[in-house]
Amino acid sequence: MKRQVPLALCFLFGIAMIFTQFSPHSYSQDVYKEVINWGLIISPFALVLAVVTLIQTHATRIRLRTEHWQYSLIVFAGMIVMVLFGVPDGPQNPIVVWLYDNVQVPMDATMFSLLAFFIASAAFRAFRARAFEATLLLITAMFVMIGNVPIGDLVWNKLIFWIPGADNPESWVNSTADGASWFRQWILDIPNTAARRGIILGVSLGVISQSIRIILGIERSYLGGGD
Amino acid sequence: MEVFGIWVAAFLTLCIYSFLYRDNPFYRFAEHLFVGISVGYLIVIGIHEGVIPLAWEPLSKAMNALWTEIIGETTPETRKALRGLFRILPIAIGLLFFARLSPSHTWLIRIPIAILIGFGAGVAIPNVLQANIFAQTRGTIEPFAAIGPFVDVPPEARLSTFDIFGAILMVIGVICTLTYFFFSVEHRGPINWLSKVGIAFLMIGFGAAFGNTVMGRLALMIHRVGFLINDWIGSFGALF
Amino acid sequence: MLEKFMNMDRRIIFILVALVVIIPTLIPIRLPITVSEPTQKLYDFIEELPSGSTIMMAFDYGPSSLAEPEPMAKAVMQHCFSKGVKVIGMTLYPNTPTLADKLMRKIAAENNAVYGEDYVFLGYRPGALQVILGMGTDISSVFETDYQKTPITEISMMENITNYDQIDLLLDLASGSSTETWIIYANTRYGLKIAAGVTAVIIAQMYPYLQSGQLIGLMPGYLGAAQYEKLLNAHGDGTVGLNTASFAHLLIIVLVILGNVAFFIHRRREA
Fold first, then answer.
1. What is the CATH number of domain C37-234?
2. Is residue A20 domain-shared with residue A116, that is, in the same domain?
3. Residue C7 pLDDT > 90, yes or no?
4. What is the 3-state secondary structure (H, E, C) of B159-193?
5. Residue A63 placed within a domain
6. pLDDT of residue A226
């Protein structure tokens, strides 16, 4: 019962979505719309899982007085203030908007901007041409980086100016102007696309086979442990 | 109030940046405040942009319509609103997520999860097949339809020699990358060579991703530095 | 000496990074920008849309990565409003509605666009897949009201819009996998034309879709925003940001080269 009912529902909804997409009959389309509606209605409740897990984690930290437990009080304070003003009025409440604009957005943006420092540090310490593959990766990255910013084309155009004949507008040299951004574009258009396409094809075949296994009840890991 | 907001945002921005020196109480304060505010916002959005418009409002409209029906004042609108009563079932299933709060009934959350997973799997099969297998394969071989003079294409639409080279390189790249991911046969002899070429293509792909990631990460920082210099330091004039 | 250099305190690198961003922010420069084909394609598509057409903009990024999509949104909305193209905004990200609402209003005010006539912001609904599929059959089945709780039946620009059939383009401003989801479910299933403006981190994975025609155009991060601004003859945040980024890019390239030179000298000595 605890496993069979979910497996049967998974099968039912999966099969319904496959068949209704192939049948234009009005009954079939009604079922299609209704199943989507069910999905829409059930989805917002999934938020409960995330919130409950977070509350439990921080409540445990406070209860057990683990290291830095006091900071968990700040988590609750922030959450309670938002809920107190936001739940009755909605996200348009001026205090919610103020906190969002001046607390949440700047901190979220700054937190991720730390990565700029770490990527620079990693570029110096870890980005080494140890083997052929690593060298290929490194050289490509350098070309893409230089092609991404306008200074790349500026430097390139200055360099080709030194090639004999560059002062003649008809010369082949002038057709290579903006070479840094052209080469970046070529890398992305051809070898990068080929590699990404290989990954997409491989991953998609995996998604399709996994979806079939889920619908048929062979893949059950989403049910979790227990009976 | 606006200037005060800028100062609060600047203070919190500097709290986070203080982590670059080392972990410290200012950073930890900002980090935890961020988590609390974000989750609070998520709850507000979940209720006002999820539960209320998708579940509560149609259901309450249906209840009102039902009452109107009972007292005999039926209109076409109330008839339409009555359909909202069918939402009781998915709402009840959605509420099963709360079973997470009771250890002995936790298994009940498998029901909404199973429905969402089944829905996702069912809808994925035909669409992923079409979008990621057929369309991508077609994209790989389609350029060859524009190679003249063997194929009947107008001269202006024909691929240049360099484009033909690109199209061939693309086919080689896709086949070799797929070969690298093909684990059903041992990578020896020609398969090994193909897979090595596949690795080279993958490395170029990852290199391109890294190069772009640098631009992305720097953009985030430029935005914050712009805020500190233009908005925060710019607000000094309003204060003094 | 070499060992010391290779193991230099990373905070020295942090200071260098800060300097190459702060100095060009204080003393802005303006370098020539080359427009790439994917951005040009998106511009041309919108340029050819007749007045009264409608595009949908999905603000599928969080506050963590707003730096890049915001200038793109600004440039495209400016282009749309100047041509009389209407814009419907929405988001698949729960932490974005307030951000997107504020951004749309700000850009609209700068371009004298009127809410409900030239643009509308629908807000957020949970479950990306269901939202995309649901809007394909009937937008009002997902968004019965806009973000301000006005029924969409009372919004004049939504009068003749039922589903994707009346929308000429979806522009996904993305920082994650949402563009693939739009392609797989809205383009494949309903034939909605899709373009993307993505953060630099995910540019590379967009190219297969661009080559196959599943994406009709692509704006790559700050670069895309700057290129679009150039096409509009505007000087916006994308152009400023990209110029500022030039020096930081050079620093990182120098750091990679120095790190490798030190590494090879060290390896040769050890051998």
1. 3.40.50.620
2. yes
3. no
4. CCHHHHHHHHHHHHHHHHHHHHCCCCCCCCCHHHH
5. yes
6. 67
